[in-house]
Amino acid sequence: MNTSKKKELNYQVSLLQAIAIILVVLGHTEKSGHTALSILNWAPIYSCHLPIFLFLSGYLYRSDYDRSPISFILKKVKTLLIPFYLINGLFLLIQAVMNDNGFSIGRSFSFSYWISQPWDHAQPMTFAIPTWFIFALFLAYIVFCLVRCLISFIIKNELIRDIALFVVFICAGILSVHYINLNNPPEIQIVYLRSVIMIPFIQLGHIYKKYLEGKDNINNIVYFSVLLLIQVVVVLKAKEPALKFGLYGIKDMVNSGVPFYITGITGTAFWLRISRILSSNTKESKLVSYIGQNTKSIMMFHLFGFFLLNCLITVISKVVDISRIFYNYNNDRFHSDLYYTAAENPRATLFYLIFGIGFSLIMAMIINRTKGYLHTKTSRKNKTI
Hints:
Layout lengths: L2 H25 L3 H6 L12 H11 L9 H31 L11 H10 L11 H21 L5 H26 L3 H26 L7 H18 L20 H24 L4 H8 L1 H22 L14 H4 L11 H39 L1
Helix pairs in contact: 1-3, 1-10, 1-11, 1-12, 3-8, 3-10, 4-6, 6-8, 7-8, 9-10, 12-14
């Protein structure tokens, strides 16, 4: 692959990651996030934003990981599990101070809760509540890698193995959704079944990278027409008119999760093609690339960015009338709700989007520079020794 083509693909991946995380942040701005990039509830944000991340996780997964699962798992402990614990521990401490000073937000620090929470609760009760996805992805990665490693000893042909794995994974996912819908199991079961439900998208991304990407040359008009037709059929056939799925707790997944998988695939395919069109027809944006390269930080910090904007609104509202933009601002909810935004007005949504992502990028910059400094210092020390 030539350098320019590789650079374009790298930018396309960054662009798709940026789109997905912007959808996540918009989805957390309450009602406006649901409608900002949706058409008549036929393609809502919650039907595809997390499947895009899962698809990209599989896209970036290398087949040689199948032969070294332990090193892969240790890598994910370093990049996913440790950051999860660090950020939630930090916010638990911050919330403990806040809750002693007029707030009642989330949980205060408890060592036992901090350690056990991800293994038996669907979401952490901190400003980093969206990091449930980071932990769920960690579990999904472990199962994905270990199963692939096991099957590689049984099925030697790569194409047959990858297709068989996709069939097994999606059947397991559909059965898991069906089981949850029928039995309403305790939260601890949802924690692990949720990761099983996520795996088919990871395998699909891996299959796309290996077998389909080079052949993905369908005309844009035909491509989007087929996606629209599929989406119309799903909407007409689904038991519920809105295709909004709460993957965090397996909410609203009717028909044993079949609409979730179909719309997750169509939504991913839609934004995949949009990112390709944009990456090949627009100049590379450093900001978009930086957003795409720091989605984990945005996932961890954007709710605290919302909170900081709420603090600013509270201060400014005492001297200036800001009701035209934040007309439904609720001070009580500001003091008690981790997710609170006064963003029903589209103009207010823009403020929350900018603050959420902007604060997260500042934190990402601080973290990245700290890592770079520590790495340089360690390298110099090792050379001296």
